[in-house]
Amino acid sequence: MKKQLITFVALVALPVLTFAQTADEIIEKNIAATGGADKIAAVKTFQFDQSISIMGMDMTGKSTVVVDKSIRNDVTVMGQQMTTVVDGDKGWTINPMQGGTSPQPLPDDQLKTQKGNMHLFGTDLFVAKDKKYPIEFVGKEKLGDKDVFNLKVTRPEGVANYFIDATTYQIAGMNAKVTLQGQTSDIKIKYGNYKPMEGLNLPTSLDLENPSMPGPLTITVSNVVFNPKVDPAIFAMPK
C-alpha cells in the first residue's frame, strides 16, 4: 500500500514539477546560450550596420551604442539621412522625411523607448536580471511551430513578454506595449538567424510588426564591432 501511495504521489507531482521551471532558471539558461554573463558584461560599446526592408522599400542604417549611456541611429532612405540620438537623459532627432532639416528634441515617450535599446541586441533578459526588473513566468506555449517559455518583464518603458525557445533557450520573440505620440500599440518582434560573434550568440534578423506601420519591417544586422572607441561628440546635438 505504501509503494502504491508513493507511486500515485509521484505521478500526480510529475506535471507540476515539469511545469515549475522558474523564471530565474530560464533566464540563466538564456544567458548561458547567449555566451555567458561575463561575455555580455564585457561589451561596453558596439556598432553595427542594418539593412531594413518594409513594403518593398529598402533602407540602410548604422548604429553606435555606449551601453546604458548613449545610442545613435542613422538611417538612409531615398537618399536622405534620418538621425536619432539619446545621450543620457536627453535626445534629439533630424528627420528630413518629415520636412525637418534641423535637430529637434526627442519627445519624452520616444526618449523613454530609445533608452530601452541601449544594450546589446538579444541580451534583454540579462539586462532585466541585472537591473532587477519584475519578471513573471507566464507558462509554456507555442510560437509558430516552436515550444517556448513566456516570461513577462516589466520594463521602465512598458511591459514586454519574451518567448524563449524551449530547446535552445535563445529569445525567439517579444511582444510589448509601447506608447508613442499618445498612442499605445502592440509591437511584435521575431528574432532569428543567430550567429556566433566573438564568443557571443546573437540574432542577426528581426521581423517587427506594429499597427502604426504600413506593413512588417525586417532588419538584418551585419558588421558588428565590439568595444570600438567611440567619440562622445557624435551624440551631441548640433547647434
UniProtKB/TrEMBL annotation:
Leader peptide range in chain numbering: 1-20
Keyword Signal: yes
Domain of life: Bacteria
Keywords: Signal
Keyword presence, Signal: yes
Gene3D superfamilies from the UniProt entry: Lipoprotein localisation LolA/LolB/LppX
Name of this protein: DUF4292 domain-containing protein
The organism of origin for this protein: Spirosoma profusum
